[in-house]
Specification:
3-stranded mixed beta sheet; 146 residues; alpha+beta; 3-stranded antiparallel beta sheet; single chain; 5 helices
Amino acid sequence: MANEAERLAAFLATGQRDDDPDAPDRRYWLDLVRQVTQSGRRVLRARVVSEPVTDYIRYEWAGTNGNIEAGEEVRWLPRRLASAIALPGNDFWLFDDTAAVFSVFTGRGEIAERQLGTEPAVLDLCRAAFEAVWAAAIPHNEYTPH
C-alpha cells in the first residue's frame, strides 16, 4: 500500500516495525477497534498466508501487536492448511452477518476495487469460510512467519 511504503522500507532496512499507534495509516483503525470492542463486540481477523511469507506479510505480522492491544483478535492460517476449506475468491470483511465487503487486489497488491455482497448465499459462504479458517488458524502470539 502506497501509504505504508516508507514504513515498510524502514522495516526492511532495520527489521524493526514502527508501532506508533498514532501513525496516520494506523490511528483510525485502532481507534475504531477500541470503540467496537469497548462496546462489547468482537473484531476478528484471520489471515490466510502463503509460506514462505512475503516481506509485506512479515511487516504486517510485526505490526499486529498494536491491533491486539486495541482489542482485535488475530489468527494466521498457513495456506497449506486451507486446502479443504471453501474460500471466496477475494479477501473479505464480514459485518455482523449483514454484508460482506470484498477487496479485489491487483497483481501488485494494490486494491483495484471493493465489492459489496448482501445476498444470503454470499453471506453464508463468507460466514462458513471464516468460521472454518478461524477454527484452523493459529493465534497471533503462537504463529511465527516462515
